[in-house]
Amino acid sequence: MDKTQNKEKRSVSVKTIGFTLGGFGIVIVALLVASLYMLSFEFKNVKKTTEEYVSLKTSAMDVQLASDYLTDQARSFVVTGEDDFVFNYFKEKTVTKRRENALEALHNKLGDIQAYKDLSNAVDSSLALENTEYYAMRLTIEAFNKNYNPDNYETEANKSYCEEIQNRVMSLELKSGDTSLTEAEQKQRAIEYVYGNNYQKQKHDISANINASINKIDTLLEKNVFDSSEQLNRVLMVQQILIVFLVVFFVAAVLFIRNGLLKPINYAVSKISNREFLDGSHGLKEYRYLVAAYNEAREISINNAEKLTYIAEHDKLTGVLNRMGYESVYRDLYLDKTAFILIDLDDFKAINDNHGHHVGDRMLKKISTILTKYFPNDFVCRIGGDEFAILVFDYKDKETYKQELVKRFEEMQKESSETKDKLPAESLSIGIAFGTKDDDTDSLYRKADRAMYNVKTHDKSGYCFYDEIKARK
Fold first, then answer.
1. Which tens digit of pLDDT belongs to each residue from 449-458?
2. Which of 274, 292, 313 is the last residue of a domain?
3. Which of 1, 107, 138, 244 has its C-alpha lying 20 to 30 A from 90's C-alpha?
4. Does residue 339 sit within a domain?
């Protein structure tokens, strides 16, 4: 009897504990599931916010790209008089319509906020700029004696472009002073319209409005990310509290909590705080989903930042470092271990004047390719229109490196003068200065510039070392 009573007592005790722990476990698990859902929801918000940011910024940048594209086509047309450029211009304006589409997309997503108003101002300015472009085209058509009759073209697209040209361009009356100009003077006057200071100022105003819109989009993103991070922190804090209760009241679930949730979540918090990618090969399905969402959002953020940085620091035409990239690199080098090479294209203006800017652009690309070929491990920069700089930071012996540079320069001159690619022969004036402990960025640049100037004043097409100038005195 005593044994039976003892057995019953043990059964009741186990059952009570089981129900008690089971009840607490069910409640806590339910709460954990709810918190996981909230965490998943917040991660989705972060991902959605990032995707919307990329979309919004793309819309803002599309306005800039479209405006620049119209400018390029208008300028190319007034310089060359080729039909393709004016047809491309009206295709962008009447068919592609990137400016209008981007503005509509931004309005649909943000409404009538200041970022949209700034972009709208940019589009309005771009539309207003078309009047100048139309008049420049009208002068060009007059100078080249062109007749855009739709019947002279085969494709329906070109016929429609001709109608646009007749309605928007040919209908313009030339100013009294422009009608008496010669064809050459009319061509020059058309170029002045699209390259003049007033035109450039209007382009600058368009870019300023677009940049203002992008800055406001960035501010909006920062706020949304901060709000989402705060909510994520609160959800994670609730989860940690629930895990502690689960350990205390539901011992049987300790291993599940530790291996299934606690360790992965703590790992995730640590990695997120250090802005690192997460390993999603372990853990529950929900956790892996969150890791995938976070990693995707993180990757998008990194790729977008790298793309924007690359665009900001590299020359769009040649692909080498631009002025911003050059200044960023130059200020961080040890100048006493740096060789500064300054290169200028001889008579480059004559190439643009005689062959057109499109040939000049091809020449700049060719020279950039040559410089990159002979200085693959150094910083090749385009710091002006036809002026390049090369920052060398890993040479060992100065005199030995001089001899190596002489060989490179001779090969570079040889390649730049070749005309197999149907480009005009080009020569280079090169100045070289080796940095010392007493140099700063300005003084080292001046030395290289002086050396290059010495070449310019001695029939160009050559090279000069700054220290050899001093030795001759």
1. 999 999 999 8
2. 313
3. 107
4. yes
